[in-house]
Amino acid sequence: MKGILRLLGVVLLCLAACPVAALADCATIADPIDTDRPDTPDDSPTVPPGSLQIETGVGVSRAGGVTNLDLPETRLRIGLSACTEFLIDLPDYSRALGHGAHGFGDVAPGIKHQFEDLPEPFQLWAAAGVALPTGNQQIAGRGAHPYIQLPASADLTEWLTLAAQYLVTFHPGDVETAPEHQASLDLEADITDDLGVFFEYTGSYRHGAAPRNTADLGATYRLTDMHQIDFMVGKGLNSAAPDWYFTIGYSLRFDQLF
User: Fold this and answer.
1) Which of 104, 156, 229, 243 has its CA 20 to 30 A from that of 97?
2) What's the CA dihedral at 82, 88, 147, 83 to 10 degrees?
C-alpha cells in the first residue's frame, strides 16, 4: 500500500506541475450534467447552485463464490453555492444470492467543495462526510464511519484527462478500528461531446487485513444535457478483492429549484 500511496503522491505532484493556462471555473446551469459515478474518483464539477442531481444505479458482484446484488446505488447532490454542494448517499439494499447477509446500508451525508481559480488544467476537490449507523451491521459495520476524500484531475489534452483520488474512512465503532485507505488512478477519454470512456486502478488497505486491488473500465453517455447513462465492469487483481463486478446507472439534473 505504501507503494500505491507514493505513486498517488507523484501523480498529484505531476498534476500540480502541469502548464499554467486560464483559470478553471466551477459549473453553471449552462454546463451539461457531469456525474461522480460510475468510476471511483469523484472529480466531477460541483452541482450548480440551486440544482438537484440524482445519480443512481444497480450493481452486481461476485466474491468468495457468492454473487451479491446491490440496489439502488443512489447519490443526491444539491448545489449550495458556486463551488460547494451537499451530497447524501442513500441506503442501498444488498443481498447475497443464496446464503449470506442481506439488508440496507448506511445513509451518508457529506459536503464537497471545488477549489476555484486554480490554473488549468489542474482541478482539485475536497469532500468530507459520515456514514451514519442506520443500516444492517453485517452489511455496513458498527457505528458511524467518517470519511475524508481528495479528488484531483488534469486535462492532458482536449480529450484526455488524468484523475487521482485519496480516500480515508474511519471506523471508530467497529471491532477493528483501523482506518481504511484507498487510492485510485483514472484515465478518462472524451470520444465525443457526449460519450466518455475510462480505465482505472484502485487499491484499498486496512491494517490487519489483506489489501484489495481492482481494475475496471466503463463509459458514460449523455442522452441530453440533463440525462446520462453509464456502466462499469471490473475485476479483482488479488484474492482479497471481488472476483468481478458490474454496475449500470442513470442520472439526471434539475436546475433552478431554489
Assistant:
1) 229
2) 0
The answer for residues whose C-beta is within 8 angstroms of residue 137's C-beta and 6 or more apart is none
d(CA 250, CA 60): 16
13: pLDDT strictly greater than 60: no
Pairing of strands 108-114, 84-89: antiparallel
Q: How confident is the model at residue 101 (pLDDT cuts 50, 70, 90)?
A: confident
Tell me what the mean pLDDT of segment 80-95 comes to.
95
Query: In three state form, how does the secondary structure of 145-199 look?
Result: EEEEEEEEEEECCCCEEEEEEEEEECCCCCCCCCCEEEEEEEEEEECCCCEEEEE
What is the predicted pLDDT for the residue at 177? 87
Contact 73, 88 (CB under 8 A): no
In this predicted structure, the answer to whether residue 139 has a pLDDT above a threshold of 90 is no
Q: How many domains does the chain have?
A: 1
What pTM was estimated for this model as a whole?
A: 0.88
pLDDT of residue 141: 87
The answer to whether the beta carbons of residues 151 and 164 sit under 8 Å apart is yes
| Domain of residue 24, residue span | 2-254
